[in-house]
């Protein structure tokens, strides 16, 4: 067995893999040999064959029709799946965040209340109210 880089590698020793030369040549060069028996590189382009139906939406993704209850069940399964991905806060974090929100809302309410009181007094003074 001999060490051999994959095609396209920059020769980094960390990326070297060990291949069986006979197995590699059999796989890579099956039917692709020149007159002097050297393997021919096929390049790195992958081409998918096109079929008649490749442009239609059904060919791309098969749509599975289910009834009303199947769709509702699927919805709840997806909701549970997404909720499992959520990183839930600890009790301490939750109390901290709740306290911050309550303090912020209280401050904003006081600011809006004082502005409302001030503008109300200014309007009554401007229009001659008692």
Structure description:
The chain has 130 residues and is mainly alpha-helical. The chain has a domain at 89-130. Helices cover 51% and strands 5% of the residues. The chain contains 4 helices and 2 strands; from the N terminus they run E-E-H-H-H-H. The protein has helices at 21-28, 57-60, 68-85, 91-126, and strands at residues 2-4, 17-19. Strands 1-2 form a two-stranded antiparallel ribbon. It is elongated and about 100 Å long. The mean pLDDT is 74.
How do the strands and helices of this protein lay out in sequence?
Blueprint: E1 2-4, E2 17-19, H1 21-28, H2 57-60, H3 68-85, H4 91-126
Antiparallel strand pairs: 1-2
Feature tags:
single chain; 130 residues; mainly alpha; 4 helices; 5% strand
Q: Outline of this structure?
A:
This protein is mainly alpha-helical and 130 residues long. It contains four helices and two strands, in the order E-E-H-H-H-H. The termini are far apart.
Fraction of helical residues: 40-55%
Shape: elongated
**Lateral arrangement of strands in the main beta sheet:** 1-2
The number of helices is 4
Major sheet description? 2 strands, antiparallel
